[in-house]
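Predict structure. Chain length: 353.
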Amino acid sequence: MKLHIAFLLFGLSAAAAQAADVVLAPTQMQRLGVREALPVEAKSALATPWSARVIASPDAEWVATAPSGGVVVRVPVAEGQQVTAGAVLAELRSADLPDMGASLSQARTAAELARGNRERDRALHAEGLIAERRVRESEAAAAQADAALAAAQSRLRLMGVSAADASAGRIQVRATAAATVLERMALPGQRVNEADPLLRLADANKLMLELNLPVAQAASVREGDLIEVDGSADRARVTQIGWGAADATQTVRIRAELPPVKNGLRPGQWVKVRRSATAAAAWSVPAGALLHHDGRSWVFMRTAQGFRAVEVEVLSQDSAQATVSGALDAKSPVAVSGVAAIKAVWLGHGGAE
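Prediction complete.
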């Protein structure tokens, strides 16, 4: 019990130390070998690179399916090919189509006959030769025949089949919009059922970047952040941040939307990206100014009484300089040597005698 209380008190004192300024006199700083340098505002700062995969936007990807059961005759497009709206993606032969074509012809003939009977009965009723009930019956029959014809026409129209193609048993599956073929899911000679997938397509102008970041890094990403693609002027805006972490990798999935311009990127392509930082929040400091504690990064900023620990986000770093984002001030220097000694005082591990 005493040991538990001791650890608890130590944790509380350490937390209190992090929340307080480090009070040091000039003579103490001299003995600790503390040197200082002013942060320099970074007009353009990019974070360390991340790997990202180019994917199609969820609302820009779709699958072309078989309108009816049949046999695939040809698939005249290849993966990665750009197709225009109306282009033939696949051709099928279906034994069911001639019956549909015949049903359409029968419905058209029945509708024409019903309309003729209606017009004749209307004329006869106007001359007083037949009762009104007879006219109503013929009008109802005509309306029913028109509805049956419209249903037969709609079915073939939804299948993308003309009356002539239906009679020949041929289906041509066409692109509903300009797109890129991502995957061929059916091959010539293959038998398919109604609604079986044939091809997967995407609008090449609606692309996203997909990143899988460690939980600690993902915690610093916010919706609206800008991400730049290395070697390109393209800038994507973060629109989706996953809520859960993957069990195996402990990463969070993040997606950023690319602008609808010709950027030369392709779905499935891996690229290096970096997060942009605003000029007002980006600072260049000597690498020695950084310290790491409890999975976070800090610098010691000079105050009237000593130093204050300021949490920062490391955007990029090499052996000499680091670019960070945080609440720094161009007029307030930061400690660049003696940092370990200041840290010990900050955490309550020792004093500056």
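Summary: The CA atoms of residues 290 and 299 lie 5 Å apart.
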